[in-house]
Amino acid sequence: MRSLSLLPTVLLSLTPLANAHFLFNYPPSLEGASIDEDKEPDAPCGAKTPNLSSDTTTTDFHVDGDFISLYAGHPQFTWLYRASVQEVSEGNWTQLFPIVQQSGLGDFCSTQVKAPKEWVGKKGVVGVAGIGGDGTLFQCAIVNFVEGTNANMPSACKNSTGVTAAYTSDADLTKLVGDHVETSPSASGTGAAPAPTTTDKTKNAGVVVRGGGGLAALGAAVVAGVMML
Q1: What is the pLDDT of residues 12-31, one digit of tens each?
Q2: 110 with 73: CB under 8 angstroms?
Q3: Which strand (E) or helix (H) includes residue 203?
Q4: How is residue 3 annotated by DSSP?
Q5: What pLDDT digit, counting tens, does each position of 92-142 carry?
Q6: Is the separation of the CB atoms in 163 and 76 below 8 Å?
Q7: Cα angle 88, 97, 168; round to 5
Q8: Which pLDDT value is given to residue 54?
Q9: What are the Cα distances from residue 75, in Å, to 21, 102, 205, 224, 226?
C-alpha cells in the first residue's frame, strides 16, 4: 500500500510532459519545465518574450556545433531552429539548421546545430518553432554564442525509442525566418550543417538517440533515428 501512496506524486511529476505541446529542453527554455501550453501559439517565443538587456540566465551555445533537444507531445512535429542577436520583436531571425520532421512522440535531439561565427561573444536568442497538427507553436532560450564545438553532450540530448527524423521543407516555417534565409545550413547540403546522407535508402537528419541500443555513430556525426524514404 505504501507504493500506491507515491502514485499521485509520480503522476504530478509527469504532468508537464503530458500536457505540453512541446518542451524545449536544451538549451533550457525561458519557461523551464512550467510550460504554459495555452500560450505556445504566441509568436515569437510562447508565454515569455526574451529581453536581451534584462534576462541574465543564459547557456553557452557553440557556433561550430551544439545541441537542440526537444520533447514532442504529438506523434509528428516539423521543426524550425532559428536565432537572433537582436531583440526578437524586430523579427531579425536567422535559420540555424535545415527544417526537420520528427516522427514519433517523445524526446528528440539534433546535433551539430551551427550559428554564424560573427556572433561569437554576443548574447542572443535561440528559438524553436514547431508544427504538430494544431498550429505553429513557439519557445525560446537565451544563449551566449561562444566559439568552437560543444564536446559535452547534455543529458537532455536523447531520442525516445522509435523516434525518427528526416530533413524536409515547410513553407509556413520558412516564412518565419523572413529575409534572413538559411545563412547557415540548407537542405541541399550547403552551409554549416552536415547534409543528410543516404545509405541503403535511408536519410538521417543529424539526430542523436540515447537509450535502447545506446549511441550509434555514422561517419563524423553521432547519429541515430532514421526515416525510411
Answers
A1: 333 344 445 899 999 999 98
A2: no
A3: strand 202-204
A4: G
A5: 899 999 999 999 999 999 999 999 999 999 999 999 999 998 899 999 999
A6: no
A7: 115
A8: 87
A9: 10, 8, 17, 18, 15
